[in-house]
């Protein structure tokens, strides 16, 4: 069991929840890591905790205070892009990009993995139906893997991104098959009590759900 | 001036203080980043703040709470190695290694740089008279540079480690030449009010001072 000890980055969204269920299904010993980084959609933290609890896996919440702004997700004065087409969404880096976010998340995951002797770090990043963030792409994850090889104490820790080349529809199907509590996942960026339906994250998610509906 | 906007990682020790003075001397526009990560030698934070204030450069203190242990610097129950010879110090990774520390520090520096449009990140890492930490070596810094190239929003941000191949004696000489307030710097790991004189960090520092004394 110890050989499959893993850190799972869990935001509370569909992708990371599916990644957690996938890892658990494959027999990995999961230690969930959740970040409270001042995101306006704090609701996702609640989702992440519920998901981890339901699956009965241990979790840690790390609180990060970024004293600088620079993202629509952490600065209420910056507007979240809405009602964009899917081709617009993945074209440029949007205002919702949080500077250095995945580098920070993975560096904490690396620290946690080294501290408890975990051998894997799972991340739900994907680059097909995604928001255009540079730190979600395979070349970023490969570079982080190389960083571990070059500068960690445990150079054998492996990054796993099982969703990296899946469409949102494929992820949704996978989630259903794995029994992910999809109703508990939270994707919306806007910070309301109910999903706004018009932010990039809602649009990508809803498109997959509507295709799925048509097929059923 | 904006083209030379830089983030400087400042621990409050001799190396990072010298790096800050070096950057300032070379005309870089310095934004200092200080970390409060639960280190037992909290005294270094006070030193870092004093040094930044004296040089009249803006600084930010980022508080990091690592919920996991795994280092003598963050866990009072783990003993700090003492009275080791210099050849023992650099041989293995010591108990004072903090899992993922420089990866975390650099990831915050990257975030800060992207948020304020800084083009350089200065770090005082060096591998000659050092504590044997894997995340202080040139190959680690090169891998982090590559990570920025592959996954940051601003792929042009450059990591600078001007002390990387200098001996502690060379750094001390450099510090004196640059007018670093050496008396304000703090290197001791032990967390006391005065330097213990026997931890790895004190031993490396004191050796340089004693050679310097003999020469004067």
TrEMBL record, chains A, B:
Zn(2+) binds at residues 188, 196, 199, 202. It comes from the Bacteria. The keyword Ligase applies. It catalyses: 7-carboxy-7-carbaguanine + NH4(+) + 2 ATP = 7-cyano-7-carbaguanine + 2 AMP + 2 diphosphate + 2 H(+). GO terms for biological process: tRNA queuosine(34) biosynthetic process. Belongs to the QueC family. This is 7-cyano-7-deazaguanine synthase. The lineage of its organism: Bacteria, Bacillati, Saganbacteria.
């Amino acid at each position: 069991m110890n050989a499959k000890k893993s850190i799972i980055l869990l935001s509370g969204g569909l992708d990371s929840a599916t990644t957690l269920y996938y890892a658990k299904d494959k027999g990995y010993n999961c230690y969930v890591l959740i970040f409270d980084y001042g995101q306006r959609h704090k609701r996702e933290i609640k989702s992440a905790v519920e998901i981890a609890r339901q699956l009965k896996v241990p979790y840690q919440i790390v609180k990060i205070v970024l004293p600088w702004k620079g993202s629509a997700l952490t600065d209420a004065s910056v507007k979240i892009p809405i009602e964009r087409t899917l081709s617009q969404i993945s074209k440029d880096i949007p205002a919702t990009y949080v500077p250095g976010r995945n580098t920070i998340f993975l560096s904490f995951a690396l620290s946690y993995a080294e501290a408890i002797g975990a051998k894997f770090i799972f991340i739900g990043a994907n680059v097909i139906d995604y928001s255009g963030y540079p730190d979600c792409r395979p070349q970023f994850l490969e570079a982080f893997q190389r960083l571990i090889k070059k500068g960690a104490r445990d150079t054998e820790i492996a990054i796993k991104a099982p969703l990296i080349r899946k469409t949102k529809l494929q992820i949704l199907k996978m989630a259903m098959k794995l029994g992910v509590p999809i109703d508990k996942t939270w994707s919306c960026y806007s910070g309301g009590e109910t999903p706004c339906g018009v932010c990039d994250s809602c649009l990508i998610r809803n498109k997959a759900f509507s295709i799925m509906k048509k097929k059923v």
